[in-house]
Design a protein that fits this description.
Blueprint lengths: L7 E6 L4 H11 L4 E8 L7 H4 L14 E2 L2 H7 L2 E4 L6 H10 L3 E4 L11 H4 L7 H4 L3 E2 L2 H9 L3 E3 L5 H13 L8 E7 L14 H4 L4 E2 L7 H13 L5 E7 L6 E8 L6 H11 L6 E3 L17 E8 L4 E8 L3 H16 L15
Parallel strand pairs: 1-2, 1-4, 2-3, 4-5, 5-7, 6-7, 8-10, 12-13
Antiparallel strand pairs: 8-11, 9-10, 11-14, 13-14
Helix pairs in contact: 1-12, 3-4, 7-12, 8-10
Length: about 350
């Protein structure tokens, strides 16, 4: 394990996407990291600044993106981030791991059991042996396992606030296991950078619409990790929505309220669970979460309310889908794996208004 002042040579595979660009932005501010290798698929051969103009004046703005080759990345780096489309990471990760690199995968390729991938992702998993070795990368819950892992599956943007908001309440018996209804809303960057009519300005401006339910791939992820975190099987009904915003995820979870549970007991449970978590802010009763307050930061906001009239616990969470929902959480995982403080390189406050 590396010490606090150690130097880590890092590769970002998939640097041309939104999450990949956000990774580069965050890593540039990390005092213990050198960005040693940047690679992409269709954008290979182009300068980083052509793809991400906001990084043009950075030390790596003129860097030409290499093609996606595990051997080249392994030659230049000791740690790799995979910011690739679902299904692609599983093909690259084994070669990098066999070469001795430690890997954080931002896709969904190592979050589920092998049997779940055909139904939820549409492919047979090409590296099922690594699924048993991968650690789910939610630092507030699995920090000890992450610290010694070779392969970390970075969580999805929706599951992050859902698991953080519900797991302590389930474990404490303050809410029932279901069915739990999760309403999710995401900005357009959550759909990725590829051009599509469904995410064009003309289609999305002044539009709020659901998508990909009831078979969204984050559904089994939420169920699996909630059970891992709380020890209680949970049934989730998840409906995501696309909203006319660039960044941000908001989830509102509706769960059976246990007898005697109050807003104060729900809030107190969450506050106690995350009192030492640097990136979780539990709001006091009466305050409401807001995606805008998390923009650009690695922060997640949580609130919990007991609706005793209907016997429902309402738990809401907000985060920036590209930071705590993707790149920032990936860096947080890297910090744990490398022996750095969790907050290293992630201390920027949110942008507001």
């Amino acid at each position: 394990m590396l010490g606090e002042r150690a130097h880590l040579r890092v590769a970002v595979l998939g640097a041309s996407g939104y999450a990949g660009g956000e990774l580069v932005r965050l890593l540039l501010a990390h005092p213990n990291v050198e960005i040693a290798h940047l690679a992409a698929n269709e954008s290979a051969g182009r300068a980083l600044a052509e793809i991400h103009p906001h990084l043009a004046t950075s030390p790596v703005g003129g860097r030409v993106l290499a093609s996606l080759e595990a051997a080249s990345a392994a030659d230049e780096a000791s740690f790799a981030f995979l910011s690739l489309p679902h299904g692609a990471s599983a093909a690259f990760a084994p070669a990098l791991l066999d070469a001795g690199l430690r890997v954080v995968d931002l896709a969904g390729d190592f979050r589920l059991s092998a049997a779940a991938y055909p139904a939820w992702y549409g492919f047979e998993h090409p590296a099922p042996a690594w699924l048993e070795k991968a650690v789910y990368g939610l630092p507030e819950v699995f920090a000890d396992q992450i610290a010694v892992a070779s392969l970390v599956a970075n969580p999805g943007c929706y599951p992050t606030p859902v698991v953080l908001g519900l797991a302590p309440l389930l474990a404490a018996g303050l809410i029932g296991p279901g069915p739990v209804v999760v309403d999710g809303k995401t900005g357009l960057s959550g759909a990725g950078r590829a051009l599509a009519e469904a995410t064009s300005y003309a289609t999305t401006e002044e539009s709020v619409r659901p998508y990909r339910f009831p078979m969204h791939q984050h559904t089994p992820e939420m169920e699996r990790v909630l059970e891992l975190a709380s020890g209680i099987p949970v049934a989730i009904s998840f409906v995501p929505h696309l909203v006319p915003s660039v960044r941000g995820v908001l989830v509102t979870c509706y769960a059976p309220l246990a007898s005697g549970s109050t807003t104060e007991s729900l809030t107190g449970c969450l506050a106690s669970a995350y009192e030492s978590a640097p990136f979780v802010r539990v709001l006091p009763p009466g305050e409401m979460v807001d995606t805008k307050r998390t923009r650009g930061s690695n922060l997640v906001e949580l609130q919990a309310v007991a609706d005793r009239r209907t016997g429902t616990a309402i738990v809401a969470g907000a985060l920036d889908n590209l930071v705590k929902g993707a790149a920032g959480q990936a860096v947080q995982n890297m910090n744990l794996m490398a022996g750095f403080e969790q907050t290293t390189g992630l201390t920027a406050t949110a942008m507001y208004p």
